[in-house]
């Protein structure tokens, strides 16, 4: 039985489609979260509705909706640091970067440690503005032979035209060395759930960095495979892990993915992934087994860590809110 008296913030969800916002809000409530953070991915043609949707959520739910704004990385866009300043000025709570995902890194055509990104990252570091940056992907996505069953029909693997995983890791390591004081959240556990020693070194080296728990479901399979070590890691680094569901993704989601994560954290149950979640099933891997974490650890993961990094309440919206100012479009 899951507890009903935790304060929960969903620190990682999306708002691609306006028609899906009622389901999104209902599923957040179903999971038990009182507040949530809507992430606007890099401003590309498949993401134009995210910005007005995120602002709508922030306007309609000013005490509940945090927003991490996105940047337009297309050729000819406003300089990135100027876009970041606008996001800060209009009342965003943080910056979302998808630039480290291999397909986005390929489209950008520059390394993650490119000089063109330095002024933006320096501004975020100097001001303590939170950044949630998707970097890399699970190693099995670099081969058609190893990609998970649920992803294979979609053709979701990387070929020789994409940067390799070691290349992306080398680029981001140089970014980390240049910006050690970023208030940085690395989602999906930075794809290190199968490399807990590397995750440990990362958190010890960079005290202002955190990991979030948004699925990929491989994260939970990898933690299950080393359950005892994973439980010790979560307890030892309870102040560096943030709850998130990845609700709101364009290909759909199960309302039970949030409860799956809670069950994994709160109980010692053995259970399958939600069979109606398009990013989890079909799945031929063994069932998950929960970590049954102490309540003080759960309180930190569910809300306290996010509040410390981002704020107790969302920042208020300001100004005329012309999203032309951050890359084009009509007034909200």
Whole-number total of structural domains: 1
Distance between the termini: 43 Å
Major sheet description: 8 strands, parallel
Rg measurement, Å: 19 Å
What general form does the structure show? globular
Determine the fraction of residues in helical runs and give it as a percent range.
Answer: 25-40%
The number of helical runs is: 11
Strand residues, percent? 5-15%
Strand order of the largest sheet: 1-2-3-4-5-6-7-8
User: Any guess at the CATH architecture?
Assistant: Alpha-Beta Barrel
Write down the secondary-structure element order. Answer: EHEHEHEHHEHEHEHHEHEEH
CATH homologous superfamily grouping:
Metal-dependent hydrolases
Specify the structural class. alpha/beta
CATH topology: TIM Barrel
Number of strands: 10
Low-confidence stretches: 322-332
Observed structural traits:
eight-stranded parallel beta sheet, disordered C terminus, 332 residues, alpha/beta, two-stranded antiparallel sheet, TIM Barrel, 11 helices
How is this structure best summarized?
This protein has helices spanning 21-31, 50-60, 80-90, 102-108, 118-127, 165-178, 196-205, 218-225, 227-236, 257-266, 295-310; strands at residues 9-14, 35-39, 65-69, 94-100, 131-135, 184-186, 210-212, 241-242, 270-271, 288-289.
């Amino acid at each position: 039985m899951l507890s009903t008296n935790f304060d929960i913030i969903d620190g990682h969800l999306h708002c691609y489609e306006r028609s899906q916002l009622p389901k999104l809000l209902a599923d957040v409530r179903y999971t038990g979260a009182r507040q949530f953070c809507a992430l606007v991915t890099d401003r590309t043609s498949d993401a134009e509705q995210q910005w007005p949707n995120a602002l709508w959520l922030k306007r309609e739910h000013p005490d509940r909706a945090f927003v991490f704004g996105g940047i337009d990385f297309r050729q000819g866009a406003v300089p990135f640091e100027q876009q970041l300043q606008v996001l800060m000025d209009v009342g965003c709570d943080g910056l979302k970067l998808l630039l480290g995902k291999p397909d986005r890194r390929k489209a950008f055509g520059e390394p993650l440690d490119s000089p063109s990104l330095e002024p933006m990252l320096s501004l975020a570091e100097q001001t303590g503005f939170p950044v949630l940056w998707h970097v890399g992907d699970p190693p099995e996505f670099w081969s058609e032979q190893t990609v998970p069953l649920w992803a294979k029909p979609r053709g979701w693997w990387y070929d020789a035209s994409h940067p390799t995983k070691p290349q992306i890791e080398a680029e981001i390591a140089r970014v980390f060395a240049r910006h050690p004081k970023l208030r940085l959240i690395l989602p999906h556990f930075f794809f290190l759930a199968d490399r807990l020693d590397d995750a440990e070194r990362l958190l010890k080296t960079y005290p202002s960095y955190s990991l979030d728990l948004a699925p990929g479901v491989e994260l939970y399979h990898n933690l299950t495979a080393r359950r005892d070590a994973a439980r010790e890691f979560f307890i030892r680094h309870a102040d560096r892990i943030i709850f998130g569901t990845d609700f709101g993704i364009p290909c759909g989601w199960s309302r039970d993915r949030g409860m799956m994560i809670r069950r994994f954290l709160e109980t010692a149950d053995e259970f399958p992934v939600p069979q109606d979640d398009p990013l989890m099933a079909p799945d031929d891997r063994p069932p998950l087994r929960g970590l049954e974490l102490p309540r003080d650890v759960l309180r930190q993961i569910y809300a306290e860590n996010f509040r410390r990094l981002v704020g107790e309440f969302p920042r208020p919206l300001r100004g005329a809110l012309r999203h032309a100012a951050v890359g084009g479009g009509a007034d909200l």
